[in-house]
Amino acid sequence: xxxxxxxxxxxxxxxxxxxxxxxxxxxxxxxxxxxxxxxxxxxxxxxxxxxxxxxxxxxxxxxxxxxxxxxxxxxxxxxxxxxxxxxxxxxxxxxxxxxxxxxxxxxxxxxxxxxxxxxxxxxxxxxxxxxxxxxxxxxxxxxxxxxxxxxxxxxxxxxxxxxxxxxxxxxxxxxxxxxxxxxxxxxxxxxxxxxxxxxxxxxxxxxxxxxxxxxxxxxxxxxxxxxxxxxxxxxxxxxxxxxxxxxxxxxxxxxxxxxxxxxxxxxxxxxxxxxxxxxxxxxxxxxxxxxxxxxxxxxxxxxxxxxx
Length: 308
Prior knowledge:
Layout: H1 3-19, H2 21-29, H3 35-57, H4 65-89, H5 95-102, H6 105-116, H7 123-140, H8 145-169, H9 179-200, H10 210-238, H11 240-246, H12 249-261, H13 268-307
Helix pairs in contact: 1-10, 1-12, 2-10, 3-9, 3-10, 4-8, 4-9, 5-8, 5-12, 6-8, 7-13, 10-11, 11-13
Protein name: EamA domain-containing protein
Keywords: Membrane, Transmembrane, Transmembrane helix
Transmembrane segments: 7-26, 38-56, 68-90, 96-117, 126-145, 151-170, 182-200, 212-233, 245-262, 268-288
């Protein structure tokens, strides 16, 4: 099997495992767990697993003060607030729609990059943004308007936080260390943040029944630790552009899980909304790939001219 094919399989498996997040979360809710305790156990177990992985691979986990500050911000915004708002949205709208709405983060990242880094807003970007807004509008209207709006807002806010997380991780300081070192510290810091949140909220749920433990461990292993490791390993072979493109399978997995496991109804309006949002994401990702190749072509051409 070639390196490209191997990387593609890894990233696709990662997207499928990430897409199972709502399945494990909703099943754990049914066992009487609140969001804070669920996420504490999720990141606590995942932190232990990534720690063992780094030890086995002999990956250094040492960081400096500046890197720690950046990882603290990334953990609070990117994992704590992202997952909290996303998991909360599952209580208001279907898991499939919540996962899809969260996946507009490439669009949000695009807009924020334009504001922060003054990136040009091209016609392709405008089309993608328009499609995503139309999809969101379709989701927001219809029966149960109040509940839908609350769920939609929570899912979109989770996407907004994740976009901030991506911009934070793009800092040059964090590129100096292994991505697995980054994951190690983010999982650990996030687990600590939810531990503190549990202490100030309703306490830590220690009623770990066999069923609850089963779903939490699966959530931590498949949809957190293994999903992250497979994505990073696969990205080494496919490149970040292709990896992002393949990751669009994630919301589709959530949709299928919601339809087949929880009997969530997928009407025409929801189908159109999801199609519009996923199309907008694909446009953004494809644009990023073309821009990257154009830049590489330009750089190669300049080098050849200098050699001539």
